[in-house]
Amino acid sequence: MSNVTALKTSISEAEWQMRKDLAACFRLVDLYGWSDLIATHLSARVPDADDQFLINPFGLTFDEMTASLLMKADEDGNLLNQSDYDMNPAGFVIHSAVHMARPEVACVIHTHTQAGVGVATQKNGLLPLTQQSLAVLATTSYHEYEGIAFDMSERERLAQDLGNNNVLFLKNHGLLTVGNTVGEAFMWMYRAERACRFQLAFQQAGVEATKISEEMQKITMDRNRQANSKDGYRPIGQKEWPALLRKLDRENPGYDA
Is CB count within 10 Å lower at the N or C end of the chain? Predict the structure, then answer.
């Protein structure tokens, strides 16, 4: 019996599906140029065990991640499956903070991209200059830099700063997004990353901005909240995720092993 078959027979179908989705998300993060070798992390809650989550082994690049290689840990940091790798301690602090505070969150994504760090380092953060930034600002908050996340006490502050939002700017550090599905977390990262790129592109032009009035900012953010909700015309991630998996199957298959 192969290691993959042995794992599949020892866990629920729901966990195996979550493993496949999370492994796919790792490869998509790499495909879109957001990975940082082995330095950042993604996690997903185990569907039938609320106090357990899946996270990447520290030592694998995102483009080689598979469903069976993911590590499983509880909220105290205990590893629950055998692995040839260790868990990134900063990854545990950041991701366990969110999973403990937000039981409805299925997936957490953290990146260190050029655009994301570029905006997270700016005093005023993401600016309400584009339609794309307003979509993100409708569900955004900020967390002060506290150094490399080794301090377990930072979990409380991370959770408090995230609140009920889907996007968290880690100041001087990077981006973090969450979602009730893997697809939703990915799409929030896609939108946040794109908004940051647009801001940096404008700032590099060195020209005066056409400002959006505060009234129109509010109208646009309210419309985004409605459009992205379960009652809206595009519940975020639902329509995009199957298409993204088809793209991944064409360009980097094998994540489901």
Answer: N
